[in-house]
Design a protein that fits this description.
The structure holds three protein chains of three kinds. Chain A is an alpha/beta fold. Chain A has 19 helices and twelve strands. In chain C, about 50% of the residues are buried. The two termini of chain C are about 15 Å apart. The chains are: A alpha/beta, B mainly alpha, C mainly alpha.
């Protein structure tokens, strides 16, 4: 074999083996519009590519509604199915798993799970098997504008019960201030009220009991009572004008522009209120306060029971093995710490509250750490079909379009029909 | 505008009369065969190459899905795996039990009513004005037709802005009158009128164009003769123009109904079916309650209902009104 | 058909005097009302958000050209238009090819079951895509065409076949029968007759079919909405909705984006008004 042949053979070998290096692409579908979070994820992807030659990591960011609308169809086809995708856990994840789209990765992720909050780890399991890894956790709470509260003479610390909240709404209204902004045009922001009321009235077993059909299922006294309480609030007309058409980002912007005193929202609100406002500046953080959803007198739920998301990334059945490797890579403490410090999100790590610098996020992290029972978002927990119905009826009940009884019956019907 | 020629297809013999004069004398199949060429090898080759692509595409993407809609509608199926949970007619019961669907049916009816009572007279009136040698007629025609070429999605979004309670027309009116802002699109009583406004804005130009085409086909001498006989303008319109426009009016009504039945693109950007599901059409109901919730059986049942309405209308309308056109 | 309208008039007399002025004024008012939404969309795209919220009507005080330049300089704008163009071009080409061949066989060949097959294809005239959209989606998925251009193009072609075949078949049959006789006498087969005589002589009807299917595809929303997932493949209708979802709170940008995406349609309409109007209305009326 002469030199030329050797060279040729080398070229051939290189040509044949090169694709094997460069061919693996890990695609990750993320729901985020927050620049800090996106920058962090892009960085993690780059770091991984640098240390793992031949693997390409593509991170795609979708807007919330677009993601929910698109994901079911994307999962159907091999070509469009991402390797890893964002999840809120719950019934939607269960349905995806039952349909055979997810991979059991229990053995591969046991290492990182050990460092994470058990509530979060459990949330990303189906029948006790891990189908992905959690990465952040959050809580829905009331954010309020301190200056507007002061102007109206309302003290947030004194809002302990639902009746206190109603009183505060009245006081704010009397002072000519829009008490609450809500993105009811997208419906789900309103279902936080309904969900929290169910939790405060029925306690931690309320949802599970309803699913199991106890006491009439979703038609139980708990859900009807929650509807009545929500209507009580709605009857005070506490929301901004035209709230039925307002999108989530718009309503957050209304708060950011100082045109409403409160909003009940998840922790992502903190990073969103400034860019969504017309001024682009939002409210300065020191003017924003947080209080937990109040208790309902006579209810079984505690003020420390929390509603909120556990988000994670799920592994699809066709994902390359590098995808799981990448999953472990981004679950490193290093990145969790970075995310916490930058205020991008609250990592699902044990004790992550200590890393958080942003005072508001720190407060949310503290709520989370002190939780007595953490409940996933109802619409996620109940799956796509029933979840949409609970969102629909939350808006309808608040606006007085449906009776609490009819709303509860509608949820039960949807549950029976699936 | 895709559905109208159904009846023609079902009366092909009538068409063949034009092609072969001898057909006028006898409709016997024997004569009929004579007018056609006997199939040669060449003919067979052509047939085998020319026809299958169309047949195949049509069967796979039009005929089969419709048949499958009928099949799926008997199942409770979320689209994953295969349909297994047979539930008989339950999907249909659920569809008709759903208040949002009943409302969608009513809305579809409302669109038709408004098309007939507002759009049709408006389009006809404008057509009469423009067809008369009005200064700038060409410009007017172009302007009125312009919205028709825009995508429904864009039209819906433009009007979402125009009707916004804070920055749109309602805001101007309420601030002039010193009233509270009015959110038309958020009002359950008024939001659907927004849909009607957009339909009117977008489609009346198309119907106007149909009438202009119809007016051009009217024999001028007939009108002039009537004028000589002392017929007043309104008499001429009532006794000559309008009857002669009959076919065009029936066609215009046909398009209004068919357009109403398949309306979807305007709803999504304008109201998304809200508030409280008061502004759905049948198709938007199918999308929001079938597709986004992945209830394939339920959505298929809606599709079948829509299909039955479309077919019944197409045949019924033909038989009743358009037989002689 | 359109320009002739100004020459011919049914009343036989030109309107004069006061009625003419009133009629003209009414038309002007109507025209302003029709144009206003489009005009305001374009103008408000030049404003700052603050000004848009306080003064939505009227000229911008500061012309924010950057709203428009930003979009024009972005990849997504050109990408969505390019996707739409590609999808529409493929649809038009395939529709013309497939339906003209089928129409030709139905027009000139007699074979067992021809009337049945024609009636079968004409079923497509009876119902819109939306009725079968769910099973169609599952079909597209099972064929592995989800999230691909073909997943939109093929159903679009399939649903436009009935109408196209009907229009073309009538037109093909109207070509003088002597032509076919002569061609056959000269030993010219159906293939050559189709390519060298039928198609060249059918320019107007082919362009009618082309215009109808192009406009339908260019403005299509439901099918791409259900079939496509990747934003890189979005046609402009989906791209517009995605943009609106992303910039919900910045109406000025959304309006600028609408203006720029509807601009091609408006320009082409102004340039080729006669053909487009004739194509869309005559196509509807003729058959």
């Amino acid at each position: 074999m002469n030199l030329r042949h050797l060279a040729l053979a080398a070229v051939c070998a290189a040509a044949l083996s090169a694709p094997a290096f460069a061919d693996t692409t890990v695609t990750l579908l993320h729901v985020s519009e927050d620049k800090t979070t996106q920058a962090l994820w892009d960085q993690i992807a780059k770091d991984y590519e640098a240390t793992h030659p031949g693997v390409k990591v593509e991170v795609k960011y979708l807007e919330n509604e677009a993601f929910k609308a698109k994901l079911p169809t994307m999962l159907q086809a091999d070509e469009s199915r991402p390797s890893l995708f964002y999840t809120w856990g719950g019934g939607v994840m269960d349905a995806q798993s039952k349909a055979g789209f997810l991979k059991d990765v229990s053995a591969d992720v046991a290492g990182v799970e050990a460092n994470m909050a058990p509530t979060a780890v459990d949330a990303i399991k189906v029948d006790g098997k891990a189908v992905g890894v959690p990465f952040d956790q959050g809580v829905v709470s009331f954010f309020y504008n301190k200056k507007l509260f002061e102007k109206a003479g309302v003290k947030a610390e004194e809002i302990k019960s639902w009746d206190d909240l109603l009183a505060a709404v009245k006081t704010l209204k009397a002072a000519g201030i829009t008490p609450i902004s809500v993105g009811a045009g997208e419906k789900w922001p309103m279902h936080f009220y309904y969900s929290y009321l169910v939790m405060r009235i029925g306690g931690e077993h309320a949802l599970a009991d309803a699913k199991a059909g106890k006491d009439g299922g979703f038609k139980s006294a708990i859900f009807v009572e929650a509807g009545k309480r929500l209507r009580e609030l709605g009857a005070l007309e506490p929301f901004q004008a035209g709230y039925l058409t307002t999108k989530h980002a718009e309503s957050t912007g209304i708060f950011g522009d100082g045109k409403a005193a409160m909003e009940l929202m998840g922790e992502w609100f903190i990073g969103m209120q400034a860019p969504s406002s017309a001024s682009g500046k939002g409210q300065p953080e020191e003017d924003i306060g947080i209080f937990s959803f109040p208790i309902v007198a006579g209810g079984k739920g505690k003020a420390t029971d929390t509603l909120g998301g556990v988000n994670g990334f799920l592994v699809t059945k066709t994902a390359p093995k590098e995808a799981v490797d990448f999953l472990n890579f981004f679950s490193q403490e290093k990145y969790a710490k970075e995310a916490a410090e930058k205020g991008a999100y609250i990592p699902a790590y044990k004790g992550s509250g200590a890393w958080v610098k942003d005072p508001l996020v720190k407060q949310v992290a503290a709520e989370l750490a002190a939780t007595t029972y953490h409940q996933n978002f109802f619409d996620q927990d109940l799956g796509p079909s029933v979840g949409r119905v609970i969102n629909d009826v939350s808006v309808a009940v608040a606006a007085g379009q449906t009776t609490p009884e009819a709303a509860a019956a509608a949820i039960q019907d949807a549950w029976d029909q699936q | 505008m895709t559905i109208d020629r159904a009846a023609l297809a079902y009366a092909p013999a009538g068409e063949r009369v034009d092609a072969s004069p001898e057909m006028a004398f006898g409709h016997t199949p024997a004569v009929f065969v004579e007018t056609r060429r006997r199939m040669s090898m060449n003919g067979w080759a052509t047939l085998i190459v020319f026809l299958p692509p169309a047949l195949l595409l049509f069967t796979i993407f039009v005929a089969l899905p419709m048949v499958e809609a009928g099949w799926y509608s008997f199942f409770n199926w979320n689209g994953f795996g295969r349909p297994e949970k047979f539930i008989g007619l339950k999907n249909y019961v659920w569809v008709f039990d759903n208040p949002a669907f009943t409302r969608a049916l009513i809305n579809n009816g409302l669109i038709i009513v408004v098309s007939l009572l507002v759009q049709l007279p408006l389009a006809l009136g404008v057509a009469l004005l423009i067809a008369g040698r009005m200064t700038g007629a060409v410009w007017f025609r172009m302007i009125f037709f312009l919205p028709y070429i825009l995508a429904d999605v864009a039209a819906g979004l433009i009007w979402r802005f125009m009707l916004d309670g804070q920055i749109g027309i309602p805001a101007i009116i309420t601030s002039l009158l010193g009233l509270q802002p009015f959110y038309l699109l958020g009002s359950k009583d008024w939001a659907f009128s927004a849909v009607l406004i957009v339909i009117l804005w977008k489609y009346f130009g198309f119907h106007m164009m149909l009438y202009i085409a119809g007016l051009q086909g009217i024999d001028r001498e007939m009108l002039e003769a009537a004028e000589m006989d002392g017929a007043k303008p309104y008499q001429r319109f009532w006794h000559i123009t309008l009857p002669l426009l009959g076919p065009m009016i029936r066609l215009s009504i046909f398009f209004s109904v068919v357009g109403a039945l398949q309306l979807f693109d305007i709803i999504v950007p304008l109201t998304g079916g809200g508030p409280f599901d008061t502004t759905h059409t049948m198709v938007s109901f199918l999308y929001y309650f079938g597709i986004t919730r992945m209830r394939v059986g339920f959505g298929s049942a809606v599709g079948v209902v829509l299909f039955i309405i479309c077919v019944t209308f197409a045949f019924g309308y033909r038989r009743l009104f358009m037989r002689d056109d | 058909m359109t320009d002739a309208a100004s020459e011919r008039q049914p009343s036989g007399r030109r309107m004069r005097g006061l009625p003419a002025i009133v009629a003209f004024a009414a038309l002007v008012v109507l025209a302003v009302a029709v144009l206003m939404p489009i005009g305001l969309t374009g103008l408000n795209g030049f404003k700052e958000l603050g000004e848009l919220q306080t003064h939505p009507f009227g000229l911008p005080r500061v012309w924010m050209w950057s709203n428009y330049w930003g979009i024009l300089a972005s990849l997504r704008y050109w990408q969505v238009l390019g996707n739409s163009l590609l999808i529409a071009a493929l649809t038009v080409f395939l529709t013309l090819a497939v339906s003209s061949m089928a129409a030709f066989t139905f027009a000139h060949l007699r074979f067992f079951g021809d009337r049945f097959l024609l009636s079968y294809m004409m079923l497509g005239l009876l119902f819109p895509v939306a009725t079968a959209i769910l099973p169609l989606f599952i079909k597209i998925r099972d064929l592995g065409l989800l999230d691909s251009y073909w997943g939109i193009v093929l159903p679009q072609v399939a649903f436009s076949l009935a109408m196209s075949i009907l229009l073309l078949r009538v037109a093909f049959k109207q070509l003088p029968i002597e032509l076919l006789d002569a061609a056959m006498m000269d030993g010219c087969g159906y293939f050559s007759y189709f390519f060298f005589i039928t198609l060249p002589l059918s320019g107007p009807v082919l362009s009618t079919v082309a215009i109808i299917s192009f406009v339908g595809s260019w403005n299509g929303y439901l099918l791409p909405l259900v079939v496509l997932n990747s934003e890189s493949r979005y046609p402009w209708t989906l791209g517009l909705m995605a943009y609106q979802g992303q910039y919900t709170t910045s109406w000025q940008l959304v309006l600028a984006f609408i203006s720029l995406t509807i601009l091609p349609a408006i320009l082409i309409f102004l340039l080729a008004q006669r053909y487009i109007v004739a194509g869309l209305t005559a196509g509807a009326v003729k058959a």
